[in-house]
From TrEMBL:
This is Polyketide cyclase. Coiled coil: none annotated. It comes from the Bacteria. Gene3D superfamilies: 3.10.450.50. Residues 22-104 form the SnoaL-like domain. It comes from Mycobacterium asiaticum.
Amino acid sequence: MTTAHELYNRWITELWSGQPVAAEIVTEDFVGHWPSRDVHGPAELQQIIEETRNMLADLTFRVEVGPLQEGDLVAGRWVGSGRGPEGPVAFTGNDILRLAADGRRFAEYWTGTSAG
């Protein structure tokens, strides 16, 4: 059985690198909370990831802290970097994800991202 740490690793290293694995790691009724909108289901999640990756070339993420788990919540802090139209960019963020009842996939997500 996949652990929460392994699932978070897939979230960062596979999903956010553009691999089409959303349906494998989030539930059908997944809800992701971004500052400007909510994202529903694996297909819409995969779409917002593609949109993000299309804005920045060579987008990568490196986990700085975590993942940490408390009950059904998993959290991590990361640094993202890539190249935008005006050159290199870097930003930091925090992920909080809620595991589904069976612990095999994520059911909900909250993000916080900062430039710099």
